[in-house]
């Protein structure tokens, strides 16, 4: 089996069958990650370049670990301290890296659409690790995978995405992924942080945080992205925390047994208090663990390589 796409640029380009295949492959890699030797030689002759034009900790480390667990050779590149700061273009930078015989490129960029632009101009496979306020497909995949792992399925589940929806690439990718898999989705937050026409994507909008929490089974909480705001969209962080922050007292007053998620980094005391982030409802660390397995699956499937031990471990209906 193979994915229907050459690149992973956005969730909306994947079919439901693609996502099922990624999840089934990630299930197998989770078993690999539990072994004493946490590596498979599936990508032994493959070179992957991680090209990050924006700062990143979790995503970059997760991709790098996934690549090394697969046995790939890894090249890391960051814009700071590179020729990009001297005026070198994106294409020149990547072509120079490809001249070193790189097979795959994992890219994060501040400009929406940059991975798509790159995929049109180079032969190597491109994986979008986050582009501007557009998409972050592997984060959406690991979030949906974590819901499936915790609740048994994604279809029919009620998921609230809470916080800065307007500036979040995670929100958009999650909406595409969750609705494609049959979940019901509500986006919640201040009116100034929710795009006007987002309901056209098949989601419901809620401005009352308590109502959103009383409805949902899963709350995926997003951080306030002050670095992307060009003008004030709410009074203060304290005011935001008062009306839209999630704490244990708020959750204890709600009858639902809500699963709490967060893509990180967490602004503790703003959108999420430590008593929730570190509490029994939270699956945040499981998301981090699942991120490695999901990214292993994506890289492996897009590489076109086939390891017999991995292939035979897939469920029969996906063989």
Write the layout of secondary structure elements.
Layout: H1 16-33, E1 47-52, H2 58-69, E2 73-78, H3 90-98, E3 104-109, H4 114-119, E4 125-131, H5 137-151, E5 158-162, H6 169-180, E6 184-188, E7 204-206, H7 209-215, E8 218-221, H8 237-244, H9 248-252, E9 259-261, H10 274-277, H11 284-303, H12 308-311
Helix pairs in contact: 1-11, 2-11, 5-6, 5-11
Provide a short characterization of the protein structure:
38% of the residues lie in helices and 14% in strands. The chain has 319 residues and is an alpha/beta fold. α1 (16-33) packs across α11 (284-303) and α5 (137-151) packs across α11.
Descriptive terms for the model:
alpha/beta, four-stranded parallel sheet, five-stranded parallel sheet, about 325 residues, Rossmann fold, 2 domains, disordered C terminus
Report on this model:
With 319 residues, this protein is an alpha/beta fold. The protein has 2 domains: 11-134 and 287-309, Aspartate/ornithine carbamoyltransferase (Rossmann fold); 137-284, Rossmann fold, CATH 3.40.50. 38% of the residues lie in helices and 14% in strands. The protein has helices spanning 16-33, 58-69, 90-98, 114-119, 137-151, 169-180, 209-215, 237-244, 248-252, 274-277, 284-303, 308-311, and strands at residues 47-52, 73-78, 104-109, 125-131, 158-162, 184-188, 204-206, 218-221, 259-261. A 5-stranded parallel beta sheet has the order 7-6-5-8-9, with helices on both faces. Strands 2-1-3-4 form a 4-stranded parallel beta sheet. Helix 4 links the parallel strand 3 and strand 4 (125-131). The longest helix is centred in the C-terminal third of the chain and has 20 residues, at 284-303. The protein is globular. It starts with 15 loop residues before the first helix and ends in an 8-residue tail after the last helix. Residues 312-319 have low confidence and may be disordered.
């Amino acid at each position: 089996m193979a994915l229907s796409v050459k690149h992973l640029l956005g969730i909306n380009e994947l079919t439901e069958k693609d996502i099922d295949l990624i999840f089934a492959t990630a299930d197998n890699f989770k078993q690999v990650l539990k072994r004493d030797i946490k590596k498979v030689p599936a990508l032994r002759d493959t070179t992957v370049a991680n090209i990050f034009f924006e700062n990143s900790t979790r995503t970059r480390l997760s991709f790098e670990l996934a690549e090394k667990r697969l046995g790939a050779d890894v090249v890391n590149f960051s814009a700071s301290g590179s020729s990009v700061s001297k005026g070198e273009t994106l294409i020149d930078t990547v072509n120079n890296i490809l001249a070193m015989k790189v097979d795959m490129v994992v890219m994060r960029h501040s400009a929406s659409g940059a991975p798509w632009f790159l995929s049109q101009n180079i032969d190597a496979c491109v994986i979008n690790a986050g582009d501007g306020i557009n998409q972050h497909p592997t984060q959406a995949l690991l979030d949906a995978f974590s819901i499936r792992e915790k609740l048994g399925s994604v279809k029919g589940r009620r998921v609230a995405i809470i916080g800065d929806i307007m500036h979040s690439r995670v929100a958009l990718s999650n909406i595409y992924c969750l609705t494609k898999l049959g979940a019901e989705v509500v986006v919640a937050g201040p009116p100034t942080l929710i795009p006007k026409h987002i309901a056209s994507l098949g989601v419901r909008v809620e401005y009352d945080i308590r109502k959103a929490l009383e409805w949902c089974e899963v709350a995926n909480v997003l951080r306030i992205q002050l670095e992307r705001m060009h003008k004030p969209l709410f009074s203060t962080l304290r005011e935001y925390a008062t009306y839209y922050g999630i704490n244990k007292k708020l959750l204890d007053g709600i009858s639902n047994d809500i699963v709490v998620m967060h893509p990180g980094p967490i602004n503790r005391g703003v959108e999420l208090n430590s008593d929730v982030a570190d509490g029994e409802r939270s699956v945040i660390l499981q998301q981090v663990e699942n991120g490695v397995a999901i990214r292993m699956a994506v890289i492996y499937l897009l590489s076109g390589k086939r390891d017999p031990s991995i292939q035979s471990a897939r469920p029969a209906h996906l063989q």
